[in-house]
Amino acid sequence: DFNAQFPNIARFIKKQQKLAEKQAFVYNLFGRKRRLPNVDSDNWGKKSEALRQAINAPIQGAASDFALFSSVLIRESILKGDIPSSLEQVGTVHDSLIFYIDPEDIHEAVPKIYNICRNPETKTWFDFEIKGIEMQVDFEVGLNWGKLKRYEKDFDYTKLVA
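RESULT FIELD:
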């Protein structure tokens, strides 16, 4: 039923698995190569893991690369003065970006970061663009990891205290 309802997904899965079996690697949208040496293994578990990675790597890799590319574009926007200079990237976790920012700059920065991250301008840099699809972007704000809460556009973040 699933394959009948979503035939493009079934085709994608078959295509990725055939590519992996033919060349022992796959690429993601940005051209990052994932080697899959176990795709030829006689061990069924190792081979099936490689075939699963042939499907997952292009998707997860693209999400990670979108986050990385977005962080570069955000940094450029800071240097141009388009985003407050108090914004400082301090880390990433998979496809999430982590920033420090002065509370009074949060409401100015969030919409600008959102516009960059939801569909970064890839045509200029990578000669492709994704039309009709936007990345899911959400924001959490807090004084530390334990106190993160979903961003609220009407909340006064200058009143947050430890």
